Amino acid sequence: MEARKIETPEPLLSINNIEVVYDEVILVLRGVSLDVPQGQNVTLLGPNGAGKSTTLKAISGLLKTEDGEVSRGEISFMGERIDKKNAEEIVRSGIFQVMEGRRIIEDMTCIENLKLGAYTRNQKNINNEIERVFEYFPRLKERTGLAGYLSGGEQQMLAIGRALMANPKMILLDEPSMGLSPLLVKEVFGIIEKINKEQGITMLLVEQNANFALKHADYGYIMESGKVVLDGSREELLNNQDVKDFYLGGNDHNKSFKNLKSYKRRKRWL
Amino acid sequence: MNTELLLQLTVNGLIVGLLYGVIAMCFVLIYKSTQVVNFAQGEFLLIGAWVCWGTLVWLDLPFYIGFLLTLGFMTLFGILIQAVFLRPMIGEPIISVIMITIGLSMFFQSLMKWIFGVSAESYPQVFETSVVNIAGLNIELAYILSLIFSVVMMAGFYWFFKHSRMGLAMRATAFDQQVASSLGISVSKVFAASWAISAMVSATAGIVIGMVNGVSSALSFIGIKVFPAVILGGLDSIVGGVVGGVIIGLLENLAEFIDSQYLHIGNLYTIAPFYILLIILTIKPYGLFGTRDIERI
């Protein structure tokens, strides 16, 4: 069965051929495998409904709050199986998901939101931790009102800051660019990369905005209808003709419809 | 106009109202974090008061031990009620949950009557003096006790929800359970904790009232009286519960004043909160501080 890339020693997170079923009938993921090596910034691209968010929720255990379950395959994190664990245990083991749509606690202040991020941690140095987060997001420091009144970009920053408070080994980001202006997207991606480099926190990022995501990523996976259809390093993907055509908006208009999504027909192990 | 009576009733109203406020907070705590409208809130008072009375009279324990035992018992009791009866109801229609709590209310009321009898019993003398003299006024110690209790509880709740780790987790759970679990908060622990705290604080309120009025099944009626307070404040607002409680307490006593001085209908005192409830529901269906959310009626 094992016919995957050999060069990576032991990935931090490894997903092996998982299937996800919602409400015991709806099959959403149909055999997804991917590896996230320690310290890297990996991005997961694909159209709506491809199962990107579901993959993240399968990792973070939040699937169980939506009546979904991993019905086949396994997910291991630092050599330990986590697909049977609940969300609380997974956060404690070092994976933190920044959910789609930011989902900050709107009727709390920034600081209270940040404190909640550190819920699973020792509460001793919490104020230092908050200061550390403010270094990445200086503009949050000035916001003393309720988080619900922050702008979309600030809410996204708060959501990432909240993840940092948990001191995770790995952050899962679900569409951090959603609803943000291009300038803010740039800023947010810049901060994500900075956190990745400075803190050594491994990132797994789901995006619609392929351009930004790939530019900042080390490695990328492309999903379509519940499967990984293509993967490769940043350079490989950026230079791939299919990726250029469908995700990056290439200017080669001569392709006929017949050749569209040619990679779909390519056989892929797992 | 009888100013002395009015003053006395106002003070009464304030003290009773603050107690209502505390019980309303307990009610809102459960509603907010677990979305359960707990019609058995009054029974928490009743059970707490009877259990404490039992430890003092039957077991002949000193007050502080009996009190601590009661608190421990109520914590377990709250958790057990949540785990056994209400956890299986998560996701069921709200009306089913309400029927469960009404059922629990009836069951425990009868159970208490069965165990402790139907007649009212008074608490043994807990403190040496029953009346203290403050600034020339003779004030019953129990009233001062109740006032202190209410204020301490409110300050405690404020601190708890503003600064404690568990309090913040409860607020997060109330806001969005999925987000709470994404932060590593165990939602079932939060549920258990809110029932435990609610049961414990309500029981203490029951003991305080029991010391003043004696213990009888009338205690559980206070749980019903807290409804107007909670609805006035808005079902999901803790501050609202407190304000609502004080307003209901004051209005109740004002009704008593008007009744005894002018109208002479009798018992307006008991009825007034429910008239207020009706009026509020017509004018402000979300209460004074409630979240304007159509799903949360």
UniProtKB/TrEMBL annotation, chain A:
<comment type="similarity">
    <text>Belongs to the ABC transporter superfamily.</text>
</comment>
<protein>
    <submittedName>
        <fullName>High-affinity branched-chain amino acid transport ATP-binding protein LivF</fullName>
    </submittedName>
</protein>
<dbReference type="InterPro" id="IPR003439">
    <property type="entry name" value="ABC_transporter-like_ATP-bd"/>
</dbReference>
<feature type="domain" description="ABC transporter">
    <location>
        <begin position="13"/>
        <end position="250"/>
    </location>
</feature>
<dbReference type="GO" id="GO:0015658">
    <property type="term" value="F:branched-chain amino acid transmembrane transporter activity"/>
</dbReference>
<dbReference type="GO" id="GO:0015807">
    <property type="term" value="P:L-amino acid transport"/>
</dbReference>
<keyword id="KW-0547">Nucleotide-binding</keyword>
<dbReference type="InterPro" id="IPR017871">
    <property type="entry name" value="ABC_transporter-like_CS"/>
</dbReference>
<keyword id="KW-0813">Transport</keyword>
<keyword id="KW-0067">ATP-binding</keyword>
<keyword id="KW-0029">Amino-acid transport</keyword>
<dbReference type="GO" id="GO:0005524">
    <property type="term" value="F:ATP binding"/>
</dbReference>
<dbReference type="InterPro" id="IPR052156">
    <property type="entry name" value="BCAA_Transport_ATP-bd_LivF"/>
</dbReference>
<dbReference type="Pfam" id="PF00005">
    <property type="entry name" value="ABC_tran"/>
</dbReference>
<dbReference type="GO" id="GO:0016887">
    <property type="term" value="F:ATP hydrolysis activity"/>
</dbReference>
<dbReference type="InterPro" id="IPR003593">
    <property type="entry name" value="AAA+_ATPase"/>
</dbReference>
<dbReference type="InterPro" id="IPR027417">
    <property type="entry name" value="P-loop_NTPase"/>
</dbReference>
TrEMBL record, chain B:
<keyword id="KW-0813">Transport</keyword>
<feature type="transmembrane region" description="Helical">
    <location>
        <begin position="65"/>
        <end position="86"/>
    </location>
</feature>
<dbReference type="GO" id="GO:0005886">
    <property type="term" value="C:plasma membrane"/>
</dbReference>
<dbReference type="GO" id="GO:0022857">
    <property type="term" value="F:transmembrane transporter activity"/>
</dbReference>
<dbReference type="InterPro" id="IPR052157">
    <property type="entry name" value="BCAA_transport_permease"/>
</dbReference>
<keyword id="KW-0812">Transmembrane</keyword>
<feature type="transmembrane region" description="Helical">
    <location>
        <begin position="262"/>
        <end position="283"/>
    </location>
</feature>
<comment type="similarity">
    <text>Belongs to the binding-protein-dependent transport system permease family. LivHM subfamily.</text>
</comment>
<feature type="transmembrane region" description="Helical">
    <location>
        <begin position="42"/>
        <end position="59"/>
    </location>
</feature>
<dbReference type="Pfam" id="PF02653">
    <property type="entry name" value="BPD_transp_2"/>
</dbReference>
<dbReference type="InterPro" id="IPR001851">
    <property type="entry name" value="ABC_transp_permease"/>
</dbReference>
<keyword id="KW-0472">Membrane</keyword>
<feature type="transmembrane region" description="Helical">
    <location>
        <begin position="190"/>
        <end position="214"/>
    </location>
</feature>
<feature type="transmembrane region" description="Helical">
    <location>
        <begin position="141"/>
        <end position="161"/>
    </location>
</feature>
<protein>
    <submittedName>
        <fullName>High-affinity branched-chain amino acid transport system permease protein LivH</fullName>
    </submittedName>
</protein>
<feature type="transmembrane region" description="Helical">
    <location>
        <begin position="93"/>
        <end position="116"/>
    </location>
</feature>
<feature type="transmembrane region" description="Helical">
    <location>
        <begin position="226"/>
        <end position="250"/>
    </location>
</feature>
<dbReference type="GO" id="GO:0006865">
    <property type="term" value="P:amino acid transport"/>
</dbReference>
<keyword id="KW-0029">Amino-acid transport</keyword>
<keyword id="KW-1003">Cell membrane</keyword>
<feature type="transmembrane region" description="Helical">
    <location>
        <begin position="6"/>
        <end position="30"/>
    </location>
</feature>
<keyword id="KW-1133">Transmembrane helix</keyword>
